[in-house]
Design goal:
Pfam families: dCMP_cyt_deam_1. It contains six helices and five strands. By secondary structure, it is α/β, with parallel strands linked by helices. Helix 1 packs parallel to helix 6. It is globular and about 55 Å long.
């Protein structure tokens, strides 16, 4: 989890929402990522999806099945996965997700929607969530990010009366 927090700090230093993520298989990090949304101007480049891309590459190089590896992989992330990322984790059959703080705006592991344990058989398998690891530190990084100006944020639109 230390490495995930290091990646979150790197994201913060580079103007990204401070989220870092690791995928661990047999005690080896086989995928890692941090938010890259502002850098790539692609709203889907969340830390979890970046890490899943690395996992797929890792499997391809070793000629092993993604499904087999994912079923024995644990994801560590500094903030509760959003609904989109939680759905992706189900599709990849990741069995355990360990995260820092809750995501009260977009959380997909129970804070907003519980994608992790919803009865949705066509969308992969349910996964276990373990919350609260270094939650206060994760929240402080998020507060730091949201206090600063986001140069990539769209200009606010005011409604005409």
């Amino acid at each position: 989890m230390d490495k995930a927090f290091d990646m979150a700090k790197d994201a913060l230093e580079n103007g990204e929402v401070p989220v870092g993520c690791l995928l661990v298989y047999n005690d080896d990090i086989i995928g890692k990522g941090r938010n890259e949304v502002n850098q790539t101007k692609n709203a889907t480049r969340h830390a979890e999806l970046v890490a899943l891309d690395e996992l797929r590459d890792w499997c391809e190089v070793r000629n092993v099945e993604v499904k087999t590896v994912c079923e024995r992989t644990v994801l560590y992330v500094t903030v509760e996965p959003c609904i989109m990322c939680a759905a992706a984790l189900r599709l990849f059959n990741i069995p355990v997700v360990v995260y820092g703080c809750n995501n009260d705006r977009f959380g997909g592991c129970g804070s907003v929607l519980d994608i992790s344990s919803a009865d949705l058989p066509q969308t992969g398998t349910m996964f276990k969530c373990v919350a609260g690891h270094r939650a206060e530190e994760a929240v402080e990084m998020l507060k730091t990010f949201y206090k600063q100006e986001n140069p990539n944020a769209p200009n606010p639109k005011t409604r005409k009366q």
